[in-house]
TrEMBL record:
InterPro entries named in the record: 6PGD_dom2, 6PGDH_NADP-bd, HIBADH-related, HIBADH-related_NP60_sf, NAD(P)-bd_dom_sf, RedAm-like_C
Domain of life: Bacteria
Domain 6-phosphogluconate dehydrogenase NADP-binding: 7-111
Gene that this sequence comes from: mmsB
Name of this chain's protein: 3-hydroxyisobutyrate dehydrogenase
Keyword field: Oxidoreductase
Protein species of origin: Lentzea flava
Family of the protein in this entry: Belongs to the HIBADH-related family.
């Protein structure tokens, strides 16, 4: 085995700290930099300036946003592995900056929480240049092609499933809470129901792929009526109605577009 590359981590927040720890665990020589005085992970070398951090073979960034990150980048970086979350356009702009400055560029997103870093549960989606050696220390790298924006697009697409599901769960907890039902009582039922619903996704995906929405399962009409009931019940029980009203509006627009008798998959025609 050859000598491992030296790696710097910029950003010692929750995720950056987990990344630095995983690199040390894998035997990398790790330098860290952080704006404020947070404790450096064991067996890492703390530097005071980003310029010193740029001396490493690979610079991993994990800062809160691109706005924070942009002024910190320097053209002395050799390979930049950017794990700060952003939009596809932000990723592409950074890729253009990297190319103009002779910096190799990998744009990655972490589909995991810090506690999962270094385990196979941590999927690291990445695009741009192909560099998976450092990423392997963090979890399971999945390459999505040369367009540096693709990892960010997948990230937001996947999180865009997670947020409404979590929002819907919290809406359910609040709704039942108005009658004294506790999350502890309700959650096992929610998990069972969600597992059954997730099993329907492949069929829904097929319908979207074929753009064929005939259904003998459940039509948009009946779901518009159901969402109206949910929004009304939320109002009657005195909880926030925003999520239910938004979904009702979306499904209603599909109905208005002529998809009333079609399957739920046809709502995609309104979204796109
Ligand atoms: N946590 C997760 O579960 C998770 C999962 C997937 C992806 N991510 C992504 O990982 C990135 C970091 O998240 P995190 O959870 O580690 O956040 P965090 O704990 O809030 O850490 C934020 C980091 O950004 C730095 N920072 C903020 N403003 C700065 C500024 N103006 N100048 C310089 N540094 C600044 C902070 O430095 P200071 O210590 O000086 O404040 C800190 O190092 C984000 O893009 C996030 O979306 C996080």
């Amino acid at each position: 085995m050859g000598i491992k590359k030296t790696v710097s981590v910029l950003g010692l927040g929750r995720m950056g700290t987990a990344l630095a720890n995983a690199l040390v665990e894998e035997g990398y020589d790790v330098t860290v930099w952080n704006r404020s005085d947070r404790p450096a992970p064991p067996n890492t070398k703390r530097v005071a300036t980003t310029e010193e951090a740029f001396e490493a073979d690979v610079v991993v960034t994990c800062l809160s946003t691109y706005d924070v990150q942009e002024p910190l980048l320097g053209k002395n970086i050799k390979t930049l592995v950017n794990l700060t979350s952003g939009t596809p356009e932000q990723a592409r702009a950074t890729a253009r900056w990297a190319q103009a400055n002779g910096v190799d560029y990998v744009d990655g997103v972490i589909m995991a929480v810090p506690q999962q870093i270094g385990t196979p549960q941590a999927q690291i989606l990445y695009s741009g240049q192909q560099e998976h050696h450092v990423l392997q220390a963090f979890g399971e790298p999945v390459y999505l092609g040369e367009d540096a924006g693709m990892a960010a697009l997948y990230d937001l697409a996947l999180l865009g499933i997670m947020w409404p599901v979590f929002g819907g769960y919290l809406q359910a907890v609040a709704l039942l809470g108005t009658e004294g039902v506790t999350p502890r009582q309700f959650t096992p039922m929610a998990v069972g129901f969600l597992n059954a619903m997730v099993a329907l996704l492949p069929e829904m995906g097929e319908e979207v792929q074929r753009r064929e929405y005939e259904t003998d399962v459940s039509a948009v009409d009946i779901n518009v009526a159901g969402l109206r009931m949910l929004a009304d019940a939320a109002a009657q029980q005195g909880i926030d109605t925003a999520l239910a009203e938004t979904l009702h509006d979306l499904f209603r627009r599909a109905q208005e577009k002529g998809h009333g008798a079609h399957s739920i998959a046809s709502v995609v025609e309104v979204i796109r």
